[in-house]
Amino acid sequence: RQTCWFTTFESDEDVWISGFEAFQPSGGHHIIAFRSLEDVADGTVIDCTDGSAMALWMPLLLAQDVTGLELPEGYGIKIPAKAKLVFQSHYVNTSSEPIKTRDYVNNNYAPEQDNIIGAAPFANSVLDLTVAPNADTTLKYRCTAERDMNVFSVLGHMHEHGTAYTLKVG
To answer: Beta-carbon neighbour count of residue 8 at 10 Å?
Structure first.
């Protein structure tokens, strides 16, 4: 299950984030931060498991692993003043009982706010993949970037019953 909650970034100025730390209790799979293009009230919580709501969100902070991300020195991700943020928490509950969770995200602000090289996540997803029960399914997906990019981190990600993926760049 993925749960998303909305808040407003309470800075009157744009800031640069050089990384973040994410903390989730047992069962936590990931936390992702987005900038929403919607005007949703602070504190709103929705079930965003199906992924359709993400069409109105821009990725901001994607973790290399469940614990967070640290950008190379001199790079930063710009968070606009008063940006509407959405935090997506994904949990895998393997028991039949409900679980109670509490997630934390600590932002690491770039020490120098001048001369930062802007970085931004570039994400592609396949949300409509269907796998028949007890069947093996292979999906090949090709994404061609529209422009040259300096890439310092690449990752793949699966949910549900995925067992393996191969990611090729070049």
So the answer is: 16
CA distance 113 to 117: 10
Find, among 146, 163, 162, 165, the residue nearest to 154 by Cα. 165
What is d(CA 91, CA 102) in angstroms, rounded to the nearest whole number?
A: 11
Residues contacting residue 161 through CB under 8 Å, at least 6 positions apart = 131
Alpha-carbon dihedral angle through residues 108, 71, 120, 58, given to the nearest 10 degrees:
-50
For 108-147, how does the pLDDT look when each residue is reduced to its tens digit (9 = 90+)? 888 777 789 888 777 666 666 777 788 877 777 777 778 8
Question: How far, in Å, CA of 24 to CA of 88, rounded?
Answer: 12
Q: pTM here?
A: 0.77
